[in-house]
Design goal:
Layout lengths: L4 H8 L12 E7 L4 E10 L2 E10 L2 H14 L4 H6 L2 H7 L8 H21 L5 H4 L15
Antiparallel strand pairs: 1-2, 2-3
Helix pairs in contact: 1-2, 2-5, 4-5
């Protein structure tokens, strides 16, 4: 299984790792039985994601997709962050092996989960805005393949 240089770079030197204390939104997706869990933290000011951090337990592709996803939404509006697709994450990483595509889906879902939490904390029902979030999915586990 070959990884692009960008995947290897984001795995070896992940960006935005850590936690945000008193984050405006926190989203966690994945399942420990599958071997990968992503937790995303966002700080929002005037509808802009001014800071984003992640903690990922999983394979190199899971770490790389988390890192790239944070880079792609930092400084963007919530609306733009919600438009980020797993395909865009994969393209930014110059691709992923087919068996690791699920890692990019987890990254997309982690962002949506954090934004959903943000809206919930504001007293706004997030589902009409964010849509349904798949927090657990063992069918396509990227790290146990």
């Amino acid at each position: 299984m070959a990884y692009s240089e960008k995947v290897m770079d984001h795995f070896a030197n992940p960006r935005n790792v850590g936690e945000i204390e008193n984050a405006d939104g926190i989203g966690e997706v994945g399942n420990s039985k599958c071997g990968d869990i992503m937790k995303m933290y966002i700080r929002v000011e005037n509808n802009i994601i001014v800071d984003v951090k992640f903690k990922t337990f999983g394979c190199g592709a899971a770490i790389a997709t988390s890192s790239m996803a944070t880079e792609l939404i930092k400084g963007k509006s919530i609306d733009d962050a919600l438009k980020l697709t797993n395909k865009a994450v994969m393209e930014a990483l110059d691709g992923l092996p087919p068996v690791k595509v699920h890692c990019s889906v987890l990254a997309e879902q982690a962002i949506k989960a954090a934004v959903s939490d943000y809206y919930t904390k504001l007293g706004i029902d997030p589902e009409p805005i964010v849509g349904h979030i798949h927090t657990e999915d063992c069918e396509h586990g990227c790290c146990n393949a």
